[in-house]
């Protein structure tokens, strides 16, 4: 470094400026110092970066690190918090939960507008928590990441199709004068085939992603596994649970409707007898 030539400010008789070694104008001393000062939110920052080993999940490792950090007694003015990918992941999780809640609300509003009822969509919406059972089982051995949550959000819009096919056929038969129980027994075998066809189409369509083949597959695979597990569990449980829930809800609200319509009639009869 001392032999590096720098341009002098002095001029030679011919008007040119000479080049002098740097050690003629500077004194060098070997020491230990920080070569760069980083700041975050205008505060001095010392960042520690790391990568996880193959087979480990970044989210789980970040939680373990922060658990150990919580045991450290820091002096006033010092904080330890996740930055970089871990911070982006935490913000993404918060946003995806809001998206999941909005997806459920929009699905209910859409079904309510189509059925012109706030009651009928309730029996269809019961398929949403049923799908979470398979989604969680499908993620066993995979990372619970932002991609798996995106798969669960997708799942909310996919799993309602089975209940819609079933309940819509039941309501159609009831409008034709068929009793409720008989309409449910008719709808099950008839709607079983289209329900299985759409389920198998989705499962086989997501299978290449779920296998995790090719570079970057470990990022995409959890999304497909969540969708496959959720749609299989939803299909199996919907055929049993949704008719039961539909019957219970119909009896519950039907009881109040009958009571509401019977009260004025009873009062009228009592008035007639009294007269």
What does this structure look like?
This protein is mainly α. The chain is built from 8 helices and 4 strands. The protein has a two-stranded antiparallel sheet. Strand 3 and strand 4 form a beta hairpin. Helix 2 runs parallel beside helix 5. It is elongated, with a radius of gyration of 34 Å. The C terminus is likely disordered.
Overall 3D form? elongated
Structural class: mainly alpha
Q: How many β-strand stretches?
A: 4
Tell me the strand order in the biggest sheet.
1-2
Q: What share of the residues lie within helices? A: 55-70%
Q: What distance lies between the first and last C-alpha atoms, to the nearest angstrom?
A: 118 Å
Strand content: under 5%
Major pleated sheet: 2 strands, antiparallel
- Please, how many helices? 8
pLDDT under 50 segments (min length 5)?
266-275
Radius of gyration: 34 Å
Name the helix and strand elements from N-terminus to C-terminus, one letter apiece. EEEEHHHHHHHH
